[in-house]
Structure formats: C-alpha cells, structure tokens
Amino acid sequence: MIGDLQCVVLDCPEPVSLARFYQALLGGTVNRGDRRWALSDEWATLHTASGQVLAFQGVDDYRPPRWPESSHPQQFHLDVGVPDLDVAHQQVLADGAKLLDDGGGTRGWRIYADPAGHPFCLVLERPPRST
Asked: Span of the secretion signal (predicted)?
C-alpha cells in the first residue's frame, strides 16, 4: 500500500455552495477543521456522516461534464443508496440537482447532475433477501 485515500476532489465554480449541496444529500459537516488541508474561498470540504471526505476546488474556467457526451466526459460519479427513490428524487431536485436519466422509471436508479454539472446516481437500496 502506498497511501490512504484522504478525499475525492471535485472541480467546481463555487466550492462552498457545492459542499452544501452534498451536505444536504449525504449529511456531515462542511469545512470542519482538518490538519490535512487549509480551507479558503477556493477550497471547501465535506466530512460525511459515514466518515468519507469530499473536497471541492474552485476553478475559474470550469467546464462541467455533459453526460453522456464524450466531448465533456463525466470523469467520475457517485452512487448514493436511498431507501425511497421518489422521496430522494424530490429532495435532490429541491436542492438544485437536474435529472439526466430517469432510468426508464422501473430500473431502480436515476442519474442527476449536481449544481456544478457532475453526474451522480440515486440507487434504490433493496432489503437483503431472506434465505
């Protein structure tokens, strides 16, 4: 092993605003003090409730991905498990997400863009099967 993953960094035009979007989606604390990095107008973090960290880096000439076009590839995406897809759908739209693909309405997932254009999926959590 060479090292431990510290965080996933997303380029964006407004770091704190995007951190707050993901805070509404995942829970956690925006811009909690951390010895690994300094916070600034161009750098924000989200320490999620699950312990994972997302970081948001301001980029002046930011160009968002355009799913599914390869001229502006998605570069990464997050899958977020939810117990109720319809409720989660309404919540992320209210928080500024844009629906990209409704999964045909029956697939158990939907694809969205966050306010900066990064794709992410809401995936319906299925209860474990009893044996």
From this structure: none
Q: What's the rounded Cα separation, in Å, for the pair 39 and 18? A: 14
- How far apart (Å, rounded) are the C-alpha atoms in residues 121 and 113? 9
112 within some domain: yes
Across the chain, the runs of DSSP E, i.e. the strands, are: 8-12, 29-30, 43-47, 53-58, 78-82, 98-101, 109-113, 119-124
**Average pLDDT estimate for 52-77:** 84
Determine the structural domain holding residue 52 and report its residue range.
8-58
* Number of domain units in the chain: 2
- Are 119 and 77 within 8 A, CB to CB? yes
Q: Is the pTM of this model over 0.85?
A: no
Q: How far apart are CA 87 and CA 25, in angstroms?
A: 12
